[in-house]
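re: ur question from earlier - yeah i can do the single chain one, its not a big deal. heres the input i used so u can compare w yours
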Amino acid sequence: MADLACVYIRTYIPSPFSPQVLSRGGRFLRSIGDGELSQPEDVALAGDNITVAVADTGNHRVRLYTLNGGQRLGVIGMQGRGNGQFQVAHLE
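and the output i got, formated as tokens:
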């Protein structure tokens, strides 16, 4: 995992592409969330340096994945206006 440098989304707002993990040298290593995401807009790396949060904007939720293998860890939120619900999911 020492070779991992960043996770990014190919285009800016919103992207039809899954977030990609790159090496320090910019080499493509893997995608995260292939086939599960709708308009991913934001990504964030948690303080544990293991968990990646992806704003799955088109599905009104945040999805959590492992950085190393891209395994899905969980989902936060759903569409709505109540507690734990989003009109639009964003990470800041």
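The first strand starts at residue 4 and ends at 8. not sure if urs matches, ping me
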